[in-house]
Write a structure and sequence with these properties.
The protein is mainly α. The chain has helices at about 10-20, 40-50, 70-75, 80-85, 90-100, 115-120, 125-135, 165-175; strands spanning about 55-60, 65, 110, 150-155, 155-160. The strands form 2 sheets. A 3-stranded antiparallel sheet has the order 3-5-4.
């Protein structure tokens, strides 16, 4: 069985391009001798046919580069698929939702969600619980408590400092 040659899906195109550049024989292995999977070998063949440059597919909705085969096939990322296709939202709807959560200055006592993330990890609370408590990735789901509602200041998200208190962390630990 072939070993994976990448650490994350996002590194796949770079790894494949590097493997192609360093391959001197038609066999499908990397310079380190790691065998490519069948899907990776197919991609290598396509890249060779395209002159050595990996083909890049972008999401038709947001323009992000897609790497997962399913997303490339449908030309749409998972989040865009969820928000636009499953929930029937438009770009204007998403912009309106973000505008509702955007403020100009950080309220006193509020912390970045990155800081809350680290605090959750140090208390053995899965970060997925924190995200779910905040209404999921874009905050459009139900909140665990109104104090978990985040606000954008620029591109950073902030939550009430209460969320990092013993009471807030206990509520997170007890949630499903």
């Amino acid at each position: 069985m072939a070993k994976k040659i990448m650490k994350t899906e996002g590194q796949e195109a770079d790894v494949l391009a590097s493997a192609i550049a360093q391959m001197t024989t038609p066999q499908m292995t990397t310079p380190e001798g790691t065998e490519l999977t069948e899907a990776q070998a197919t991609k290598v063949a396509k890249i060779r046919q395209a002159g050595g440059k990996p083909e890049v597919t972008k999401c038709q909705r947001c323009g992000k580069i897609l790497v997962r085969d399913l997303c490339v096939e449908r030309e749409e990322g998972d989040l865009c698929s969820h928000y636009f296709d499953e929930l029937g939202m438009t770009k204007d709807d998403l912009a309106t939702e973000r505008a509702k959560r955007t403020i100009k200055e950080v309220p006193q006592g509020w912390i970045k969600t990155r800081q809350l993330h680290r605090i959750c990890e140090s208390h053995s609370i899965p970060v997925s619980r924190m995200v779910k408590a905040m209404g999921t990735d874009r905050g459009m789901g139900p909140l665990l408590d109104p104090r978990f509602e985040f606000k954008y200041v620029g591109n950073a998200r902030y939550v009430d400092g209460w969320c990092a208190s013993e009471e807030g962390l206990a509520l997170l630990k007890a949630s499903n």
